[in-house]
Amino acid sequence: MAGVTGFCAAAAAAGTPLAKRDDVLMVLPGTLAPDVLAARLQDSDAAVVMKLGRTFDGVREAAKRAGVAQRGIYVERASGPGQRIAPLAEVESSVPYMSLVLVPTATGASTATASAAGRASSEGRGGSVAVVGLGPAGPQWLTPEAQAELASADELVGYETYLARVPHRRGQRRHSSENRVEAERARHALELAAGGSRVAVVSSGDPGIFAMASAVLEALEDGNGQYAGLEVRVVPGLSAMQAAAARVGAPLGHDFCVVSLSDHLKPWEIVERRLRAACEADMVLVLYNPASRTRREQLARAIEVVGEQRAPSTPVVVARAVGSEAESVTVTTLERLELDGVDMRTLLIVGSSTTRIVPGEPRLVYTPRRYPG
Ligand code: SAH
Fold first, then answer.
1. Residue 239: CB within 6 Å of ligand 1?
2. Which of 151, 203, 250, 360 suits a disulfide with 207, CB 3.0-4.6 Å?
3. pLDDT (tens digit, 0 to 9) for every residue of the chain, 373 residues total?
4. 126: CA distance to ligand 1 center in Å?
5. How far is ligand 1, taken at its centre, from the CA of residue 328, in Å?
6. CA 161, CA 198: separation in Å to the nearest integer?
7. Which residue of 325, 345, 348, 349 sits with most ligand 1 atoms within 8 Å of its CB, as the best mutation to test the pocket?
8. Do residues 74 and 99 lie in contact, with contact meaning Cβ atoms separated by under 8 Å?
């Protein structure tokens, strides 16, 4: 036997519609941590927060942070004796459990743009650029902070494959480009922000690791003061190596070193010199950008260089498309390593002299915290 849920009674009592047309309505427990709640509120067009009581201060704080506090309506004991309805801002701190907050959809612009505009004008700021890390793949590795940043952007800028991972939102404009045009993309983002927009530049993994954050800062510097006053922020993401390492245990448990094998932007001699130095220092090696369809010799050469100093039995992890449906993660050794399947969606982790495959557990690799000697 179905019943009428509390928030429907509350919306009726408050005389407000909650959502319209293709708006998304989220029903959230007030017991969520305020930062998580703020991210969710920012990401939905309309929301209901239930389970108040002791959580109330945190809920109000989250609503403020998400820029939706003005729209919040507090409803207590809807449809019963003692019913009370008040603007969220006017409610004292101690409220009973039988209460909730309605955040009806904004009228006019979508929630995201309205809250972004609200924030920009209330803080007297112009445009901004956030370089946002999407994580290596999938929504499970997107942080609430990154999600909120994407939801509140006016303009999204990025490589088409990465932009495709960001859900479409009404009122947002998208500017996708091919992979190679990083500098151009960075400049474009700064120009959009200079025009007053809240811009999110998307990057896979962490934006500071072989990715767009450096490109944006370089463009900022090249602007010679042209972009003075623009707010530029970097929103971190989970890097692919962290996801790959986690799949097999803890190969990065001790000192490690990360090298990109791409020689588009640096001479190959530098790559070799760094590989040698890392081996010399006995560090675990993570190899990003190992090979593409056309760029194949670099990886073979890199493995040769590493093989000069590391034992043939050194554990190697080959991680491809981690977190996606095409994921494959293999644990092998330097001597058995096969390079054919390695492509641009792959990274390799080459162990140090202490990295071990757990005996009897061929899928688990770790580097002990303690260094012998
Ligand atoms: N900023 C990204 C790295 C960009 S360089 C990060 O922090 O992860 C691109 C390289 O990252 C790819 O060539 C590949 O080596 C690695 N990579 C990115 N996503 C990956 C994934 N899901 N699985 C395995 N490797 C990945």
1. yes
2. 203
3. 999 999 999 999 888 889 987 789 999 999 999 999 999 999 889 999 999 999 999 999 999 999 999 899 999 999 999 899 999 989 998 999 999 999 998 864 344 444 444 444 434 457 999 999 999 999 899 998 999 899 889 999 999 999 999 988 888 999 999 877 899 999 999 999 999 999 999 999 999 999 999 999 999 999 999 999 899 999 999 999 999 999 999 999 999 999 999 998 899 999 999 999 999 999 999 999 999 999 999 999 999 999 999 999 999 999 999 999 999 999 999 999 999 999 999 999 999 999 999 999 999 999 999 999 8
4. 33
5. 14
6. 21
7. 345
8. yes
Q: Ligand 1 in contact with 217 (CB < 6 A)?
A: no
From 179, 263, 288, 294, the mutation candidate for ligand 1 (largest count of ligand atoms within 8 A of CB) is 288
| CB distance 322 to ligand 1 below 6 Å | yes
pTM of the model: 0.74
Rounded CA gap, 47 and 26, in Å? 5
Expressed in angstroms and rounded, the spacing between residue 24 Cα and the centre of ligand 1 is 32
* Biggest distance spanned by C-alpha atoms of the chain: 81
